[in-house]
Write a structure and sequence with these properties.
two-stranded antiparallel ribbon, mainly alpha, 154 residues, single chain
Length: 154
């Protein structure tokens, strides 16, 4: 029973801590909005950030000059340069929009792939045979044979 009580009290403190953090963030947001776009700066104070639309500080970490010097915090200007670190990641390469084509058969028949290498996303060259179309087993007969017989009998 003693263990359950400790667990209950600990859980209560955790919930209260989350509630207090939520209230603090809410108050900070109100103070930020109440500053009417000044972001806590005096108008004559120089600063180098934008006050444009979508300017949100929800994930910002702010340091005073004193705190920055105590923590030996240094800042750098971001610039393009050689990149030599390795970032391990995974992903999927997809074709650019509009870089796909639909292939349509110009005759009736049963389509069979000519090679086993044709699959979704594989590249093909212009004029490359992808499928062969056979009309030999169609219920109405092979249109090419019917046309040939009609030509010969005429």
């Amino acid at each position: 029973m003693h263990f359950k009580m400790k667990t209950y009290i600990l859980s209560l403190f955790v919930v209260l801590a989350f509630l207090l953090c939520g209230c603090t963030l809410s108050e900070q947001k109100k103070d930020h909005d109440a500053a009417a776009g000044t972001h806590g700066h005096v108008e004559s104070e120089e600063h180098d950030h934008d006050h444009g639309k979508g300017h949100d500080h929800a994930d910002e970490i702010a340091f005073s000059q004193e705190q920055a010097s105590l923590a030996h915090l240094q800042t750098e200007t971001v610039a393009a340069g050689p990149f030599q670190q390795v970032i391990k990641t995974s992903g999927r390469i997809q074709p650019a929009q509009g870089d796909e084509a639909t292939v349509v058969a110009t005759a009736n028949g049963i389509a069979s792939f000519t090679g086993a290498s044709v699959s979704e996303g594989s590249s093909v060259r212009a004029g490359e045979a992808l499928v062969s179309i056979s009309a030999k087993n169609l219920p109405d007969g092979d249109p090419a044979v019917i046309a040939q017989v009609g030509y010969e009998t005429a």
